Amino acid sequence: MIPAAFDYTVAESAEHAIQLLGEYGDESKLLAGGHSLIPMMKYRLATPTQLIDVGRLDDLAYINRSNGHIAIGAMTKHAQLETSDVLAADCPMLQHVASLVGDPAVRHRGTLGGTLAHSDPASDLPAAVLALGGTIVAQGPNGQREIAASEFFTGYFESVLADDEMIVEVKIPAGTAGWNYQKFNRRAQDWAIVGVAVADGGKGISLVNMGSTPVRATAAEEALAGGASIADAAALAADGTEPPADLNADAEYRSHLARVLTQRALEAANG
Amino acid sequence: MTSVMGTRMLRKEDPKLLTGENKFIDDIHAPGELWMGMVRSPMAHAKITSIDTSGAEGMPGVHSVYTGAQLQDMGIGVGALPCAWPVTEDMVNPPHLPVAVGEAKHVGEIVAVVLASSRYEAADAAEHVVVDYDELPTVSSLADAVKDEAMAHSDLGTNKAFHWPLDPNPEGTAAAFANAAHTVKAEFIQQRLICAPMEPRGCLAIPSPAGGEITFYSATQVPHILKVMIAATTGIAESKIRVIAPSVGGGFGGKLNVDPDAILSVTLANHIGLPVRWTESRSEAAGSSHQGRGQIQHIEAAADENGKLTAVKVHLDADMGAYMMLITPGVPLLGSFLYTGVYDIPNLSFTCDGWFTNMVSTDAYRGAGRPEASYAIERVMDIMAGQVGITPEEIRARNYIAGGEAFENHEAASTLVFDSGHYRPAHDRALEMAKVADLRAEQARRRDAGETKQLGIGMCTYVEICGLAPSRALGGLNYGAGGWEHATVRILPTGKVEVVSGSTPHGQGHETAWSMIIADKMGVDPNDVEVLHSDTAKSPLGLDTYGSRSLAVGGVAIAMAADKVIEKAKLIAAHQFEAAPEDVEFDAGSFSVAGTPAKSVHIQELGFAAFAAHDLPDGMEPNLQEQVSFDPPNFAFPFGTHVAVVEIDTETGGVELLDYIGVDDCGHQVNPLIVEGQVHGGIVQGAAQALYEEAVYDEYGNPLNPSFMDYLVPSAAEMPSIKLDSTVTPSTTNPLGVKGVGEAGTIGSAAAVINAICDGLSPYGVTDIEMPATPKRIWEAINSNGGAA
Ligand SMILES: Cc1cc2nc3c(=O)[nH]c(=O)nc-3n(C[C@H](O)[C@H](O)[C@H](O)COP(=O)(O)OP(=O)(O)OC[C@H]3O[C@@H](n4cnc5c(N)ncnc54)[C@H](O)[C@@H]3O)c2cc1C
Question: Using CA atoms, how far apart are residues A117 and A17, in angstroms rounded to an integer?
Fold first, then answer.
């Protein structure tokens, strides 16, 4: 629980942070809310020698309407999502999911950019962004690029983000149509054993903790689009997934949960 | 003045705690202090083939590095850690050195120790000590230990540490089973639990190089016991050791041991002449602090055709872990006397085998042996009720001691004498508060409608043995100390009262409770009372806090010392009044001569008279100060009935505790606010065992969940708003009529919650579920019988 030695620099802007990433190379890490990175450092699972603090970049903490989507700055905290009027009106699902992350202390430190970059398949917000068809705006030394959430996650704690890139913004299509989020855990503050996010009446269904990345329940989505009943579609929710095993659940139980929760989420979203 | 006893006085401790004024171990520093960094074994059982400390020695801030063998060669008193409870003459007790020599016996055992000028440097350097191991066969579970194939200690030839019987009347038990109309046979697993106090362990040893004294600060429940044990282990004279427990953030038993850090910091500080300190990290705490429970219970019960129990037979296999710590072997035996519970069951046969495993030691954890026993008999009562075809309520009513009526001095089958009890009022009140009839109707409705979410209702009537302990009884159990408690009460020259307590609070609110006892006895304002404790220089005599003993033993000692002060003050008052002491009355703090109440003197005013000693009765010693060592003639036996209501999601296996009712009887209550706080916490801790907590090990003896991310301590969010009430059946063991309440909640709640789950799942053919009842286990239980109700 004692991290290895590291140096610490406060970035003055996104550009500055990216420049520092280039200078320090792969021994450096961005520090946002620190609620994933610091625990990993305390266990010495991560041993960056240089932290670049972007968590103080307040101009990257915003939630704005813009041309049919919502633009959210990467340093927006979960608590800001949870209390946002813009989201309440135009994307209540993201607001709701944010309110279920960890506990209040976590939500007042953790950021949307941080949780996406961390790419933990057990996290709530990445799956929500995936179901909502969001886009991640990454900035590097050569400017910005947009990455669809469906292209972003590549494996456990891995994404397409390059070492010298930083997430600066997340774009979410505005939409209030039939949504639901089911989070199954044992204690209120815990990560989901399995979670299911349903957006747009079932056009987007994504699963939490059912593989090495947040995944779309493609078989269920397609069945539903093809006119299958909710029960029949939900029965396909775990198809094609490779769920992990841990102290809470094995693959079989996780698959079962995915089916039950998908059915519940679809019923609620279409209720 | 109206009595403060029994009022909900706010705790005197809280303003200092809430404003951060209190000093915990981590707030206390000494100039020049060095931090210990522990190098711990990553193997559960292995020969240590080499240790290379050179990589650590040159690192920044490093003062020195020691292996176990070096420490032994240095001859500085790093002796084996003590076990104070050799439960049998032939108990096997392999030496438990603070730093392993030759072999490591569990993951987390210390194999070398680094001293460095900061905690961070100590942790960095510890990583650079290179240790080579040769893996040995590992005993990674109690079930494996009992097979006695792989050996936890290579040289012992067996894993069995002792066999302990309690069988006052074997013929009676045999006859009861031979004549039984109904028998129940069950096996329950008491999983290992991590103590997890809010503040982890820590210590600071400050030497006095010229004088040879050592001041030892420790986040401990037992400064007095530590002082004796440090002296006995290290050879340092007791008179040179001062132990101070600063503010301590909880213990739950986890801080009543003599851990390696105590012996290491004291001996190393003495040796190098500099202060030495340590604070454990959470993962260190989870992997190296002793754990609770760890038992497999084999229990059989016999009953007549009406469900009246006639005998209980128990064999317990108890997981000692790798070594015997302070009271490791005694913990399961503390439960032995309670396997007949609150019931009038004439026969009890009990045996316990203690087994070594390659896991961290077990030892006391809230309730220590008694929650386990209560769980087993209360589960058996429900199973028996099902077999006889009566309700859980009815089987209990038919079996209560004295038919549920008030009783005193009941000799149980174990031969222990229960001081007092009156079980039916608590039983009736709890069922009434829970509205059990309504719940049963709702349960039937949901069952008929085939709803996904089913209700379960469970109850438990527990009894606890507390107020540890009559010294003779402890002697009979071969425990290595007494069970008395010591108190001093003095009136200072200004009239303020000072109480010196031998019991040692670590969150319980002793300062408030002791002030209230004094206020009540002496007629003074509770705010005029100051309580000194937790420092062996201020309170040289004491046996500390565990086993729900503080009030029933220590609080009683204080009340008795106050009586002695009043007696002496009365002689001074009589002298001032020029009256005979027999004619002097004492009421609400004031002495007066019978019949002339106008002339009076308050006891606080006599503090100065006794101090100045200008005009005391002939031959009287100056000062108003008295002390008492109270050795209780018997234990005290609090009890109560708890009801748990659960909602089970039959599709996911998820379970929610919907409602929880506790009606507890701890005799007279000094402060109901404190009582309720203890019961709340206790209930949550027992419910945590039922639903959430388990220290899990893999087949190699690796702890799999040594962090709060995976070891699930519940929070307020998981708990319903607990509803409490109480009955009052005074103890006959002590003049205050008090019993203990620190462990009560824990003793009642695990069984109530599991009984509720089993009740909810009964339509699915489920009769038992292992703790913790995780969603996965519940889902599997539902599906093991085809899933349909
Ligand atoms: C007790 C606890 C409970 C929690 N419970 C939940 C839960 O229930 N559900 C859940 O989803 N999460 C949970 N979390 C995680 C929480 O949501 C984290 O805050 C989040 O995962 C990471 O966000 P952060 O801002 O703290 O990132 P950090 O920890 O600062 O960073 C995480 C990683 O992302 C990188 N990074 C950060 N920002 C950027 C950026 N803008 N561009 C590129 N890389 C970046 C960092 O370098 C690091 O590798 C919990 C955390 C804790 C401590």
Answer: 15
The encoded tokens of residue A232 equal 């029949």
Chain A residues inside the 8 Å CB shell of B776: 248-250, 253
> pLDDT tens digit string along B221-238?
999 999 999 999 999 999
- Shortest alpha-carbon distance between residue A57 and chain B (Å): 29
Calculate ∠ Cα A83-A88-A93, nearest 5°.
100
In this prediction, the residues of chain B whose per-residue pLDDT falls under 70 are 1-2, 786-789
Tell me whether A184 touches chain B (CB under 8 Å).
yes
| pLDDT reported for residue B286 | 86
Question: For strand B291-303 and strand B182-194, is the pairing parallel, antiparallel, or unpaired?
Answer: antiparallel
Give the domain ranges of chain A: 7-53, 59-173, 180-269
> B424-482+634-789, what's its fold?
Aldehyde Oxidoreductase; domain 4 (3.30.365)
Residues of B with Cβ-Cβ distance to A257 under 8 angstroms = 652
Atom of ligand 1 nearest to the CA of A191: 8
What pLDDT does B787 receive? 63
Mean residue pLDDT of chain A comes to 97
Q: Touching check for A57 and chain B: CB below 8 Å?
A: no
CA separation for the pair B404, B189 (Å, rounded): 30
> Does A193 contact B at CB distance below 8 Å?
yes
Quote the ligand 1 centre to A122 CA distance (angstroms): 11
- Please name the fold of domain A180-269: Enolase-like; domain 1 (3.30.390)
Which chain B residues are within 8 Å of A248, Cβ to Cβ? 774-776
Judged by CB atoms closer than 8 Å, whether chains meet at B652 and A184 is answered as yes
Amino acid sitting at position B331: V
Topology at the third CATH level for domain B484-630: Aldehyde Oxidoreductase; domain 4 (3.30.365)
Q: Is A111 in the pocket of ligand 1 (CB under 6 A)?
A: yes
- Cβ neighbours of B225 (radius 10 Å): 23
CATH of domain A7-53: 3.30.43.10
Ligand 1 pocket residue status of A57, Cβ below 6 Å: no
Cis omega (within 30 of 0) on the bond before B469? yes
- Please say whether the beta carbons of A45 and A157 come within 8 A: no
- Name the one residue in this structure whose structure tokens are 């704005």: A64
| pLDDT value, residue B244 | 98
Q: Please tell me the class of the A59-173 domain.
A: alpha beta
Verify whether ligand 1 is closer than 6 Å to residue A32 (CB atom): yes
Q: Is A134 exposed, middle or buried (0-12, 13-18, 19+ CB in 10 A)?
A: buried
Closest CA to B566 of B531, B610, B596, B527: B610
Q: What is the pLDDT of residues B517-552, one digit of tens each?
A: 999 999 999 999 999 999 999 999 999 999 999 999
Among B281, B651, B715, the residue with its CB nearest the CB of A189 is B715
Tell me where in chain B the CATH 3.30.365.10 domain(s) lie: 424-482+634-789, 484-630
The residues facing B160 across adjacent strands are: B355
